[in-house]
TrEMBL record:
Catalyzes the reduction of dTDP-6-deoxy-L-lyxo-4-hexulose to yield dTDP-L-rhamnose. GO terms for molecular function: dTDP-4-dehydrorhamnose reductase activity; methionine adenosyltransferase regulator activity. Binds 1 Mg(2+) ion per monomer. Transmembrane segments: none annotated. Its cofactor is Mg(2+). SUPFAM superfamilies: NAD(P)-binding Rossmann-fold domains. It is an enzyme of class 1 (oxidoreductase). It holds the Pfam family RmlD_sub_bind. Pathway: Carbohydrate biosynthesis; dTDP-L-rhamnose biosynthesis. This is dTDP-4-dehydrorhamnose reductase. GO terms for biological process: dTDP-rhamnose biosynthetic process; O antigen biosynthetic process; S-adenosylmethionine biosynthetic process.
């Protein structure tokens, strides 16, 4: 059975990767501040700890999901962001190549500027904010190290959260109220994607007979703004939509792209597709909160 190591296994996507992939592969998760139980504590800023981990466990593939992924935090802490998002990824790419381990690096739709959607895998990148720039640099380091390494670009994520503010989607449930008005971005076009669909897609890619390196796009196909998501969540909670105000212009600190629709042309060719209806999935998630 293939051995798959996963960084960021304590995070939103990593937890889903652990749950889904464990049914098909021998999985080995690493985390940092929340590492506990079966999850190994591995500080990705510590290079000797990384090489010791790889030598001890010798995985066949490493899914690198750990990152600083909040654009506003990245702008405020550029050195920390570069260390984790770029330097650690570059080091992992080199060390995995030396050991013949396939690196699967999780990247973002924010490597694009959002002006020319939809984007295919080899469309030119042009990130607007520091987070996107850090992921663009990391992508280049991964792809330069080995043609067997992969870059997986994903859009805004949601799934089983430990607290509502853990994802930019579920936090909307905290922002709306039965009695108080709230404002929501109705400018940027998003494609909220369930982390389990990412995990199922990666399972299918890992089961392909050939190692498929290079760039892959994974994205749900339903387009919506944060305001649209707020309307759906308000309906599920029986809150009046009249309290929700759509904001026609961007309001966040770090600049965000308008529409980064990711076209999954390589997955389509392989016949791999895992999609789910946003309204049904978010209803289920919120019912367990
Ligand atoms: N969330 C989104 O909407 C979104 C959208 C597009 C792309 N992505 C990308 O998808 C990937 C997964 O995102 P996510 O939302 O699951 O992230 P997340 O929930 O914020 O989790 C981040 C993970 O990184 C780990 N980490 C932080 N600092 C570390 C360090 N120094 N050493 C080792 N591990 C460290 C954290 O471990 P501890 O918590 O244990 O410290 C945690 O497991 C990221 O690469 C992100 O850029 C996310």
């Amino acid at each position: 059975m293939k051995k798959i190591a996963i960084t960021g296994a304590t995070g939103l996507m990593g937890r889903s990767l652990m749950t889904t992939l464990s049914s098909y592969f021998h999985t080995l998760g690493t985390g940092f501040s929340r590492a506990a139980g079966d999850i190994h504590k591995l500080d990705l800023n510590n290079e000797s700890a990384i090489t010791a981990f790889l030598d001890t466990h010798q995985p066949d593939a490493l899914i690198h999901a750990a990152a600083e992924r909040k654009p506003d935090v990245c702008e405020q802490s550029p050195e920390q962001t570069l260390a984790l998002n770029v330097q650690a990824t570059q080091f992992l790419a080199q060390q995995c190549k030396l050991r013949n381990i396939r690196l699967i690096f999780i990247s973002t739709d924010y490597v694009f500027d959002g002006t020319q959607a939809p984007y295919i895998e080899n469309s030119a990148t042009n990130p607007l904010n520091f987070y996107g720039q850090s992921k663009q640099q990391a992508e280049q380091a991964v792809l330069a190290n080995s043609e067997l390494h992969s870059v997986i670009r994903v859009p805004v994520l949601y799934g089983d959260v430990t607290y509502l503010a853990e994802s930019a989607v579920t936090v909307i449930a905290e922002q709306i109220s039965e009695t108080q008005p709230s404002k929501h971005d109705h400018w940027a076009v998003r494609y909220p994607t369930h982390v389990e669909d990412i995990a199922l897609t990666l399972k299918d890619l890992l089961k392909q007979p050939d190692n498929l390196g290079g760039i892959f796009h994974i994205s749900n196909h339903q387009a919506m703004s944060k305001y649209d998501m707020a309307c759906i969540i308000a309906d599920h909670r029986n809150y009046p939509r009249s309290l929700l105000t759509p904001l026609p212009t961007p309001s966040q600190t770090a600049q965000r792209p308008y529409n980064c629709a990711l076209k999954d042309t390589r997955l389509t060719k392989l016949g791999i597709s895992h999609q789910r209806d946003f309204s049904t999935a978010i209803k289920y998630i919120l019912s367990s909160q």
